[in-house]
């Protein structure tokens, strides 16, 4: 029995139906006496170049083991599947038990995107806080200014009352 890695790129518009495709593909593999050792649903990724007017694709990776003569039958059946925009079967000596580099890169990009969103939320919160501080400081300044103006007005009234009193005293 030979070991293979199968990489399948699905139409990105059918990403929501990837689970159904995976079930059907696993049935096809098992019906042709292949064994699936590992499967990875990598998800949507940017393509290096456009394929059938698609710039993105939904990537699936399978580690399989089986008879080489049956592989041709599998390829003939998936070749005409409209949901597949590319497929590739590669013969390997040994399967590594590790996650594929594609899967690791996808996880890192998701983590980076999550970190970026968190930073944006934090910076927005900081901006909101500083805006509130500025507003409260300006409100305090306005309050202080109005108190100062009212104190000055009161002083002016007292001064004018004293002047009026002194004029009245002089007039008498």
What would your notes on this structure say?
This protein has two domains: 2-96, 2-Layer Sandwich (Alpha-Beta Plaits); 99-172. By secondary structure, the chain is of the alpha+beta class. A four-stranded antiparallel sheet has the order 2-3-1-4. The chain is rod-shaped and about 115 Å long. The model has no long low-confidence stretch (mean pLDDT 76). A hairpin with a 2-residue loop joins strand 2 (35-51) and strand 3 (54-66). It is built from three helices and four strands.
Brief sketch in words of this structure:
The protein is an alpha+beta fold and 172 residues long. It folds into two domains: 2-96, Ribosomal protein S6/Translation elongation factor EF1B (Alpha-Beta Plaits); 99-172.
Layout of strands and helices, then pairs:
Elements: E1 2-10, H1 18-31, E2 35-51, E3 54-66, H2 68-79, E4 84-92, H3 101-171
Antiparallel strand pairs: 1-3, 1-4, 2-3
- Give the CATH topology of the largest domain: Alpha-Beta Plaits
N-to-C SSE series?
EHEEHEH
Which bin fits the share of residues in helices? Answer: 55-70%
Unreliably modeled segments: none
What is the gyration radius calculated from CA atoms?
A: 38 Å
**How much strand content do the residues show?**
25-35%
CATH superfamily of the largest domain: Ribosomal protein S6/Translation elongation factor EF1B
CATH architectural grouping of the largest domain: 2-Layer Sandwich
CATH class of the largest domain: Alpha Beta
- State the separation between the terminal residues, measured CA to CA: 129 Å
The main β sheet shows up as: 4 strands, antiparallel
Number of helices: 3
Q: Look at the structure and give the mean pLDDT.
A: 76
Describe the strand arrangement of the main beta sheet, using strand numbers: 2-3-1-4
Please give the number of β-strands.
4
Number of domains: 2
The structural class is alpha+beta
